[in-house]
Amino acid sequence: MSNAESGYSRRQLVKYAGVGATIVAAAPLIGATAAEATSKGSSNARAWRAGDHHIHSEYSGEFDTSTNPPTFHKGADAVYPIVTNAIMAKNFGLTWAMCTDHGGPTHSKVNLEQAYPDLLRSRKLVPEVLQFWGMEFDTPQMDHHTLMIPRHDDEAKLLFELESRFNKFDAFPTDPSRDTEAKFVEFLKSAASHRQKPIVIAHHAARSASGLGVYGQDTPREFRAGNNAAPDVYIGFEGAPGHQAGPLNGGARGGYGSHPTYGGFDQMTARVGGLWDSLLGEGRKWWITATSDSHVHWTRGGSDFWPGEYSKTYVYARQDYADIMDALRDGRIWVVTGDLISALDVTASNRGKSANVGEELTVSRRNRNDVDIEIRFRELQGVNGNGDRPAVRRVDLIVGRITGLAADVNADTNATTKVVARFGRSDWHRDGKDFVIKHTIKNVEGDLYARVRGTSTDELEPAADGLESPWDDLWFYSNPVFVNVR
């Protein structure tokens, strides 16, 4: 997208960003399907629309607790105004975004009285980006989570209620009784009781893990307890956390200092047959996303990319607040880093019936149950935020059995999950702008799910990350399509 197309001059973008011109010089094209929908004037049609639900603004600040009430100071942790994030999100091809600022003592009033009016102004200034209201919730007993509020007239009131009652750091003085697993479950049940139901997604879920399968603040048991309490509210975790630019300044990708990410993805997602597959193997509708967690851009000494510059979460939705939230809730999601691809469809079909990502295909036990999988993807028609034109080297089809709830609430493996097929460039054919792969899963006798990943590398499994450039290690992941045998 050129600066002219974005509606802002180069000088305006640099001014609003408050950074060097190099950041805005390499803005990539919008994802192909979203661009096509827009060019046809069909913004009300469903298309793959890129977004980011974990972005920080200057309202991620600090509190002087020597005063009562505490005094809030903007810009201590993240530095950009809300509107700057929206401008840069638009510049890098996002059509929806969400500022998720940190909480703190009495921060619920800061959100209500200071940040929310700025969000309303940003919505007017950058209407092309749907900007959700919410925060990075200081979750009882756990690490941070997205708390995304549906767009409605009382959105500010709803966030104030949930933050003031349940955010573990909002009370002043601190109230230890807020920081328990029981309070976490109470928070989710309260959120689910509202007609306008929020969405809750775990952030950087294994950042505090000390080893592979040795978890920190977030544990398999807690994910299950939360999803059991509010399955239509607590819906997943970040597959690819933010802070991906860390290695460009000598740090770890994602800020994962104790145990690394793998190809930029959290171990809970990246390990085939790991925790994500364990949850999917129970039949849970548990989804992954990819975010920037933008605080300070790496060119200013931070560890972050701009919203959409490196990581994107695509949802199949109309350009409409409610439909985007429905897409997140229903798992119509795929994720990508470095704009390796701009469109992805995974379809399972049997005897004229079909299902896509996040959906269920039901097949009859009485018939021969061969399930056809079609993978259709589109490479970037332009350059990414690093000025590269990346290429997909391999696509993997991953299949696991659905066997019911695990007896062990701490289970983090699914032994049935395998890479059933690997495809190189000679294995797919071109259909217009798309590449197409077809594969048949033979004799399906029990419930299963299928998901897809792809990479720009030659790694059979994503390797533990070091200080390599994140631009040289790109991956995409789909959420699953389910097959039920009845």
Write the layout of secondary structure elements.
Elements: H1 3-6, H2 10-17, H3 32-39, E1 47-55, E2 62-64, E3 71-73, H4 82-91, E4 96-99, H5 107-125, E5 130-137, E6 145-149, H6 155-166, H7 181-192, E7 199-202, H8 220-229, E8 234-240, H9 267-270, H10 275-280, E9 287-290, E10 311-317, H11 321-330, E11 333-337, E12 341-350, E13 353-355, E14 360-363, E15 371-379, E16 394-401, E17 418-424, E18 429-431, E19 434-441, E20 448-455, E21 475-478, E22 481-485
Parallel strand pairs: 1-4, 4-5, 7-8, 8-9, 14-22
Antiparallel strand pairs: 1-10, 2-3, 5-6, 6-7, 10-11, 11-21, 12-13, 12-15, 15-19, 16-17, 16-20, 18-19, 20-21, 20-22
Structural account:
With 486 residues, the chain is an alpha+beta fold. It has a single domain (3-485), classed as TIM Barrel. It contains eleven helices and 22 strands. The strands form three sheets. It has a 15-stranded mixed β-sheet that branches. It has a five-stranded antiparallel β-sheet with strand order 13-12-15-19-18, with no helix packed on it. Helix 5 runs antiparallel to helix 6 (155-166). The radius of gyration is 21 Å and the shape is globular. Residues 1-35 and 37-41 have low confidence and may be disordered. This is Phosphoesterase. InterPro entries: Pol/histidinol_Pase-like, TAT_signal. It comes from Asanoa ferruginea.
